[in-house]
Structures are given as C-alpha cells and as structure tokens.
Design goal:
Layout: E1 4-12, E2 25-32, H1 37-63, E3 74-78, H2 85-101, E4 105-109, H3 116-124, E5 131-136, H4 137-141, H5 143-146, E6 157-172, H6 181-190, E7 196-199, H7 205-217, E8 222-225, H8 229-238, E9 243-247, H9 248-256, E10 261-265, E11 291-299, H10 304-318, H11 321-329, E12 333-334, H12 339-359
Parallel strand pairs: 3-4, 3-5, 7-8, 7-9
Antiparallel strand pairs: 1-2, 5-11, 6-9, 6-10, 6-11, 6-12
Helix pairs in contact: 7-12
Amino acid sequence: MGRINRIYRINRINLINPVKWSEIEVEEFRVDRCMPRPALGRLLLLAIPAVLSMLSWLPQRAMAQPDDYPSKPVRIVVPFAAGGVADALPRLVGQKLSEKWGKPVVVDNKPGAAGNIGMEAVARAAPDGYTLGLAPAGNLTVNPVLFRKLNFETRDFVPVTMLAASPNVLVVNPAVPARTLKDLVAYARTHPGELNFASPGNGSGAHLAGELLNLEAGIKTVHVPYNGMATALNDVLGGQVQMMFGGISAVLQHVRTGKLVPLAVAGPHRLPQLPNVPTVAESGYPGFDVTSWYGLVAPKGTPEAVVRKWQVDVATVLRDPDVRQKLDGLGLEPVGSTSQAFGDTIATETTKWRAIVHRANIPPLQ
C-alpha cells in the first residue's frame, strides 16, 4: 500500500469580522500517494482558482468593515448650486451624521449641465465610501434617457437610500382665467400654444410633469426652461410665463399671499398644507404622479458594508423629530428606503419616463 499524502481544503472563512488566519477552518482529507500524477495534477489545478478567488476577497472585505468607518471626512457631491431644497437636504442630514460619526460630512456643490457635471464627478470618484452624491430623480431616471451623450450611466452608481420626496403642485399666475385644472384644460384647448409652462431646466420633474399633462389632457402648452427654480418661479410670479409645476416649499408662501393660484397636486395624495387642492388624478387623470425625490448614490464598487452603514444611519437620522420638523418646513417627506427598494424605484421610473419622452417626442439634448 502506498504512502498517504495530506491535502487541506479551506472550508469556511469568517468574512463578517476582520479576517484572521486563525479563523480559517480547514478540513483534512487524504489522497493515496499512488494516485496517478496526471490525476493529482488535475485535482490541484482545479483547486488553485477556487483558493485564489477566496483569497482575493480578503482585502476587499477588510476594507469594507464599517467598524472604523469613517476615519476621515466624507464628501456629498450636490449637482446644483448652493441654496434650495437639493442643497439644504444633504446639509441637514450631513450635519446629523457628523454628530453621530464624529467626522465631518462636507457638502461639495458642483453645478452645471442640468446636474450632469456633479453626477459625473460622483461616478468617477474612488469607490472607497468617502464620496457620495445627492441624486435628484431626474438625474437618475430622466437625463440618461433625454441627453444624447452623458459621461456616466445609471449603472455607474450604487443606490444607497432615498432620502425624501417632494410632491409638485401645479400653479398659475392669477391672470390666467382658471381656478381648477378643468378650467385650465378647457382654456388650453381653445387657445392652443398660447400657454407657457416654466421649469428649472430640461429634464427636471417640472418639465416632465408639464409634458405629461399635455399628453394626458390632449392640450398644447409650451415649455420654457430656466437655469434653476428661482428664476423660473420669478417669471411665473411676474406673468411672463403663465404656469408651472413647483415643489410645495417653493410655491406655498406665494399661494398663501395670493400671488399664485394652486390648481392640483401632482402626487398620489392631497397635501396637509393645501387640503382643499385636489390631486391631478382626482381631477380626471388617474395615475398621474410626478413626485420629485432625492436620493444618495455611491460610485459603483463601493463596499457593501459601507453602503449598508449609510442606509441604516441615514434612516436613523430621518426618524429624528428635529430633522422631520425641518424637512416639513422644506416641503419634504422623509423616506429612508433600503438600497434595494431605491434601486427598484430608479428602474421603474426610468422605464416610465423613457416611454413619456418618446410619446411626447421630446428631442434629445446635447
């Protein structure tokens, strides 16, 4: 009988806690030394790739341990200028995370090209968990459909969590002879092309909401894009443009002073701030929903454990009564979804807006 050679097989590696070689379990099994050399060689060749594959996980998983994360300042890239809801939201959440983690969470504004410059900066950042991006709905679900060429794709990001949602309200200048959505549609049908609607930019929620209303109501109103919400709103207030879909935080004070007239809420339910204003769906267009939302994304390849830590800690922050009160003042509803749920929303809305862009014959943007 030939001699016996011992071969060891890695059976389990503890990948949850920091890796220690003492925690690698092995299982001993025996191979007859008389086994033909070719057969033994094939056995070893089959084993080597599996072992190398397992070992390749060790540095990645070690980096992904959240116990000492963050160990330095973290950056949230905001693809718009300072000021406004898209800037205030990550600053509020970032401040609370800074207090919780003991490390600064810095907001880095990178405006331009309808938010595409900032989103590209996030996509190209190192996937080490120290750069995340504030992603408005349009930048993830509309821009990839609407723009002819982008230097990033939706798949270049890891969805972390949806932070908050903001329902849009259809408002008109008081000079417009309409006090309900039914009135507006009737007027638009008898005056095709005479009504203009403003938006903070091509591909924004306000832009797509106006195009969707044109499709659903069978009317023709003309889109006037601006470089930001403030300038768009000012022209509606001044009467240069007749109407727009705007976030509740932007339009509410003007509604209360009578400078704007609210016709309908573009979300799934009425708003407590405007309880007597019906939804677009209630006004005769079932399923109409253009709710703006803001999420956090990370560069593709960011360690799973870091993404999970962000999601869990952000959800905790969003349950804070002080945070919820401030979000209410911004016209935002806190969400704090899981990464999976956020990813599902992105996929669903991308499909929805792709169909609407095609139906409305919106030309591709450069």
